Amino acid sequence: MAADTTDIDDIREQARRWLADDPDPASRDELTAVLDGLPASAPELADRFAGPLTFGTAGLRGPLRAGPNGMNLAVVTQAAAGLVGWLAAQGGTGPLVIGYDARHGSKQFAERTAQVATGAGRPALLLPRPLPTPVLAYAVRQLGGVAGVMVTASHNPPQDNGYKVYLGAELGGELGAGAQIVPPADAGIEAAIRSVGPLTQVPLGQPGQVLGDDLVASYVERATAVIDPDGPRDLSVAYTPLHGVGAAVLTAAFARAGFPVPGVVPDQAEPDPAFPTVSFPNPEEPGAVDRLVALADATGADLAIANDPDADRCAVVVREERDGWRMLRGDEVGVLLADHLMRRGVTGLYATTIVSSSLLRAMCAARGLPYDETLTGFKWIVRAGGGSAPLVFGYEEALGYCVAPGHVRDKDGITAALTVAELAAGLKAQGRTLTDRLDELAAEFGVHHTDQLSVRVDDLRVITDAMARIRAATPTALLGQPVDSVRDLLPESDVVILRTASARVVIRPSGTEPKLKAYLEVVEPVAGGDVAAARSRAGAAITRLRAEVGAALGI
Question: Which Gene3D superfamilies match (predicted)?
Fold first, then answer.
């Protein structure tokens, strides 16, 4: 009991020191209320002071709450001061470009970042309003920024926020110009953040320069240049931004490209940080696109498209004759886009990640195009090949697509949606659909059926234990076939890859959410042109594979 009392006293003292340095009166009041609730509030207080949010390759991301283990003005001030100090130490010149979404606290965090930058003598350029992440990534390149900050938690729960960092050409190099940071930059920035002294001594300057709408217009103009100006445009699209910031930019891009303006789900059209109509603001989550499908049905749309809240991801929902509407998997959209670009004669490097379908590899091999496979995350995809060939397309199965690396060197849900629309309109003009094209690819390369076993946890030890279990008792057979390849990517990455003659399993913890993920793939040859039969066999095999992998992980 004495030890418990000592622990509480220790954390109480940490909290008091934090209060003395916290620049936000609302956060101070929040933390004071937790302190007043002691000893009953001890577990909550301990969690808030369990450690600082770590600045990794995804930047910062966490719940909005007072204390070092949360997103708040104090944490953002420290992060901005560390980042600005690191940029100066690297000799980086040029402005810091700052964007933000419409989540709680985003604008305040962006404005504080600008003040920290100008207080250190560095120009700060602030996007004019809440805008998609790809607009920020574009702006870093377009404006010659030394770096960019995007305040967003992407598709995380409403109570979260985050802080992503991009580097310009000067410090990021040719491959990393306008891309998210990779090691060792993340460790360097983290060390600089930890070395920041009292926040009361961080100089704050002017608010910085708020950019005009001409930047957004420039992004839209360049986005529409991604597609053929003379292609078919007869396509009816239903769309939702899921209460995020994508609607204005996407509809403007469609209109400028000559497509009919998509119909937008009315009660999801405007940014709303509470995300009131979805249980989780991610188009992949069950029920997230129900309203979109209802709108598509009511309007007779040819296609339905959803962005995630910061519009860097793109979900595509298609109408099937027998089964109604179905969301395409990220791998399906990825290979459709790649095939479309290949058919348009776009040559160069095509890339995806170790957790994505192996179909892109097969397509590139058959068509004599360079291919590369990276760790998960667009920070790696845009650096694929190490410059051996120019990247022309990259995707990850989590609904992220880069169809124009010269425009945005990151995933971009706006240009992806435009390119999907271009493909769908061209097929419609021939009396065909996206699923018809998928069947063609299956007939040529076999059915590559992918799925995912994803488990959200409250206790991260569940993930640690499952990864230890799969390493200690690795299956020797899956689907009745011997496991002929086992790759463990530690220490570089916490990933285990299992392969048989016709199946692949990639197991890893999520990098952004408390989830354990197993990515499953079964390849089934198509006999006698019967794609439907091959899909049925592959679907049954995936169901069995999911059960076998779940048992091996103990989940």
Answer: Alpha-D-Glucose-1,6-Bisphosphate, subunit A, domain 3, Alpha-D-phosphohexomutase, C-terminal domain
